[in-house]
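Subject: Protein entry, chain in single-letter code together with its fold tokens

Area: Proteins and the way their chains fold up in space.

Attached in line: The record itself begins immediately under this heading.
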Amino acid sequence: MSEKRLGIIMHGVTGRMGQNQHLIRSILAIRDQGGVLLSNGDRVMPDPIIVGRNLEKISNLARNYNIDRFTDDLDAALSNPEDILFFDAGSTQMRSSLLKKAMDAGKHVYSEKPISENLKDAIDLARYAKKQNIKNGVVHDKLSLPGLIKLKMLKDSGFFGKILSVKGEFGYWVFEGDIQPPQRPSWNYRKADGGGMILDMLCHWRYVLDYTIAPIKSVSCLGVNHIPKRFDKSGKPYIADADDAAFATFELEGGIIAQINSSWCTRVRRDDLVTFQVDGTHGSAVAGLHTCKTQSRVNTPKPVWNPDEPQKMNFFEDWVDVPDNEVFENGFKLQWEEFIRHLIDDEPWHYDLLSGAKGVQLAELGLKSWSERRWLDVPEIKI
């Protein structure tokens, strides 16, 4: 059995998501476990070079995590033929041009979402990768959440019977930055920097619904800018002109109706920061990040509407946990391992730039629906 080196150019890993989930908890965790195991017993060892504009910041990051290679020269990094994969977790505005640049340099690509700010650029990327025979992937991390894995198992087993509806609640209160430091970067709330809830989250809801429940046929969406003034991490005020909440309804194949509320301006009184309730003729389930609770047809209680008396039933007690019958690893790391096996061993991989373009398509349609205040069909994308 042998060990194969995989040179990875990692751009945008000084930010919260790129650093914590992709660099530290994925690539470095894979390095520490001894690489990715292939079907023939060989192992693939990632060898990252981290790239960023702030040389001091990336040099400190490299030193703190024993990373041998770093640079502020992206062109030089892309010119190294021994590094065959480019990864981007930087800003949405730069992403499509960076992915195209990397593919022009002959690199395979793996990327955070959204892959672009508009559908045309997203489709162009998918077509170019196909034409150039470049392997490509887009992060679909929420499919690897334990709660959604359990929900998908219930659906595949027929637990729900005929699925009727899906209700999703996502978000929490992001501090404005005046009396408490904000938890999220300021660009999230500025249109000019690619911010906005619809562009950020409808990409996620596209693949969550498509792969877990049923493909989306049409969408109606309303965005809101609740808090127009915020403060950045330095305490400087700025105009927050992007939508910080979105309320979307989707029609899925099979007549299923899904409604997902997404907000950075809501306080949490639910089981988790995101929950999905699926109701069917034979049973219902509520999935969070890790847990999934079920209520079957025969275990459904009989509530009685009586507004004259305090409610005596505890509606949470009648739900049963789906057990943790396996150990769930970090979803970002799992998808990195799957993509590396696809890259090196040609194992199946579904979450490509075309799938990423579908997410951009839904976000674009969501923005258009909001602007025109109407339902819009979701057409098939062909490349």
Residues 353-372 form the longest helix (20 residues). The domain at 3-141+331-350 is CATH 3.40.50.720 (Rossmann fold).
